[in-house]
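note to self — DONT lose this again. spent like an hour looking for the file last time. sequence + predicted structure for the chain T wanted, 464 res
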Amino acid sequence: QKLIPVVNPEDKLVGVVSRGDILRELHATEGAGRNQAGVHKNIKSLLKERLGQDLLDLLERISQIANRSEVSVFAVGGFVRDLLLNISNKDIDIVVEGDGILFASNLAEEFGARVTSHEKFGTSVVIFPDGYRIDVATARLEYYEHPGALPTVEQSSVKSDLYRRDFTVNSIAVKLNGEDAFCLIDFFNGERDVKNKEIHVLHNLSFIEDPCRLFRAIRFEQRYGFKISMQTEAFMKVAIKKRLVDSLSGTRLLNEIILILNENHPLKCILRMRELGLLQFVSPQMMVEQALEKIPAVLSWAEFISFPEKPEVWYVYFLALLYALDEESFAQTADRLQMQARLKKSLIRDRETCKQGLMLLETDKDWRPETIYNQLSEFSVEAVIYFLAVASTDRANQYANIYFTQYHKQAELSLTGDDLVKMGIKPGPVFQSVFKALREAHVKGAIETREEEVAWVKKQFLEQ
């Protein structure tokens, strides 16, 4: 805790003021300047209109538990925002003026649920028997020791709790109990900004406090078809110019990138990131390739032919963004993002298989069945998606279509490792050779049944 000494005219120490004291005062005056009293508007009829009965009943029971616990309880954040947008969202976040951890325990006891709490942050997760989860937090004030740092937390009021949030559209609450139960609580004109489809930060230091908000602004803008306000975009440009994203850990930066690439329209987010100059913080050499624009069409095709595995869409776009980087730039990017070894290994493998596939397309004009199988069986399903987007040829599409609609199923084997052992083949690397050769034989049409597999293995591996 940072302390500021307070002295009298004779320079004698008479007390101290903490950073928390200053922030609380700012939040109570300047921060609330938009709307000192806050909008209190009963929206119970809207809740009945837009929520299912199960969710309504749950909110009523939470209200009753809050009254018995003698605390004020609020639904906050995305749940309220999406309610106003008439978008289904069953993820309820609750803020408690009082002891949030104790209230979470009371809630869990009432529903026969279990609870996990984090005393340091005053947060809990209540997990119901059917797996449904509710996040519960003590109303809190946060401040940051430096840009990109995790916040320091102090207990506070719901007003201060809402003020610490990223954007006004996420700073709206619904009171769940007391005389003003089911009233909309809006201190910062969040409802107005939802209606106007605008993204506003709550204060001009927002992106300095947490540079992750730069990415979130783009995410919400593109998800809802909103527009980042001129003032907020100006604040973003200042933060970008000051390179505040450099203060984020690689893990946090990668997480924000993955969240963006998991959006329904990741390409729009990527283009917006490029426009604002945010891609440079992932890699200075990163470019938006033409293949990125073709990924949505390939994903639709994959869904149409019922791919055997559902691709991780974020990974397809991530592979596309990193594909053109040279090895040195890729290694630097992997280090900056603190990639786990498994992710890094997958990207290295998929970059290489795509490059080999493209080279083979150029040199071998007519792939034989076993060539199609051997080449594409080395690809992850995400690499196939990107390969088709970057190759963008009828021949590549034809090969992929043949592979997934015909050869992939043909190459399913009846024999297992146990069968090979019973036939007298010792476990080891030879198993991989046997299975690969078996699959090629299936694709060529040389064998079809289990009996033919057995006879083929005996002839090719045992008689020799």
